């Protein structure tokens, strides 16, 4: 296979848990073929969107205006994908099915369970840093809390965009440019995306590399599985939102119970 060739044939083998009638977009030239240069432009969009989220100007840090960086976090990478692929950018979406609710709730619960196990292991072997966002939500109420949850939903969709577009880019590079087998490429792309995603969260956890790789990296792998199964970013986003909102709810409940006890 030449360096620019793209295999447009359906893969011979799927992971057993994938939907047999569907495959990932772009990496084999369906619905359109993207070049390496086009993928680099999409990755630039991902980086710029992330920068818009974490380095907002002061006038975009208010309770309402801070929705703008969250929206840009989502829109800029998708705009870059639309620019290079035309209308095919919607290929990362699929129609939602009734059974998708099972994947959303199931993987949210699974990730919480995995997070608890990994967290207990980390606490026993290393110093850990708390996620301030989870703790701060307990101090909010009323309209501020509603805005927090709404903005979080947008940002979590952006995190899925920031994960799935690099996943597809790496998949393209491994399969089309390096002739890796599909299963090997999917596994490697998943691991590499988990590392990239964890690295993006290093400031959140005080640059604690082992904690971030174990905690965030493992969670990213679990929450990427709904996309691998369904090829639908809405399903992985739903699982991510349910996961985080459940964690926030526990933090709010714990804070309320604590204040009641001390009162």
How would you portray this structure in words?
The protein has 263 residues and is an all-alpha fold. The chain is globular and about 55 Å long. Helix content is 67%, strand content 0%. It has a domain at 96-262. Helix 3 (100-125) packs antiparallel against helix 7 (209-230) and helix 6 (182-200) packs across helix 7 (209-230). The longest helix is centred in the middle third of the chain and has 36 residues, at 142-177. It has eight helices and no strands.
Average predicted local confidence, pLDDT: 89
What is the structural class?
mainly alpha
Gross morphology: globular
Largest sheet: none
> What is the beta-strand fraction?
under 5%
- Termini separation comes to 71 Å
- Could you list the spans in which at least 5 consecutive residues all have pLDDT below 50? 1-10
Proportion of residues in helical segments: 55-70%
Rg is: 19 Å
What sequence of helices (H) and strands (E) makes up the elements? HHHHHHHH
Distinct helical segment count: 8
Number of strands: 0
């Amino acid at each position: 296979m030449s360096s620019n060739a793209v295999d447009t044939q359906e893969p011979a083998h799927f992971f057993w848990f994938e939907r047999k009638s569907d495959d990932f977009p772009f990496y084999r030239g369906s619905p359109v073929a993207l070049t390496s240069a086009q993928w680099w432009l999409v990755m630039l969009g991902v980086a710029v969107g992330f920068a818009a989220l974490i380095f907002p100007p002061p006038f975009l840090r208010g309770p309402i205006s801070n929705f703008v960086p969250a929206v840009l976090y989502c829109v800029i990478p998708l705009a870059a994908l639309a620019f290079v692929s035309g209308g095919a950018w919607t290929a990362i979406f699929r129609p939602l099915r009734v059974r998708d609710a099972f994947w959303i709730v199931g993987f949210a619960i699974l990730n919480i369970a995995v997070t608890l196990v990994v967290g207990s292991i980390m606490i026993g072997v290393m110093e850990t840093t708390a996620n301030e966002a989870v703790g701060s939500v307990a101090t909010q109420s009323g309209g501020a809390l509603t805005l927090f949850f709404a903005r979080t939903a947008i940002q979590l969709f952006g995190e899925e965009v920031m994960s799935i577009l690099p996943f597809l880019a790496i998949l393209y590079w491994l399969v089309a440019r390096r002739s890796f087998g599909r299963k090997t490429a999917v596994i490697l792309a998943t691991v590499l995306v988990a590392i990239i995603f964890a690295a993006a969260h290093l400031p959140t956890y005080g640059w604690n590399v082992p904690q971030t790789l174990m905690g965030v990296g493992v969670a990213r792998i679990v929450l990427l599985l709904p996309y691998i199964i369904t090829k639908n970013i809405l399903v992985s986003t739903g699982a991510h939102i349910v996961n985080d909102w459940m964690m926030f709810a526990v933090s709010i409940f714990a804070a309320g119970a604590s204040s009641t006890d001390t009162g």
